[in-house]
Amino acid sequence: MDTNLNQNGLNAVKGAAGGASAIARAIGVTPQAVAQWKAIPPEHVLKLEKAFGVSRYVQRPDVFGLAELEAAE
């Protein structure tokens, strides 16, 4: 799986949330932890999906697949 897709997912959540601090507050970690991510850890994806409306398929296509992305095209 292309790591750029995972980075795109992280950027999508950062954009929807307004930054790393909002993400950190939503899941109970520090902004510094979020800043170190190369991809969103799978255990946080569903909570972030609920909090910010960014689909799990966008956040981590390597874990949840591309089904929704492919259906949208």
UniProtKB/TrEMBL annotation:
Pfam short name (any one): YdaS_toxin
SUPFAM superfamilies: lambda repressor-like DNA-binding domains
Source organism, top-level taxon: Bacteria
UniProt feature coiled coil, ranges: none
GO molecular function terms listed in the Swiss-Prot or TrEMBL record: DNA binding
Transmembrane annotation, as ranges: none
Gene3D superfamilies: lambda repressor-like DNA-binding domains (1.10.260.40)
Name listed for the protein in its UniProt record: Helix-turn-helix domain-containing protein
Species name: Agrobacterium tumefaciens
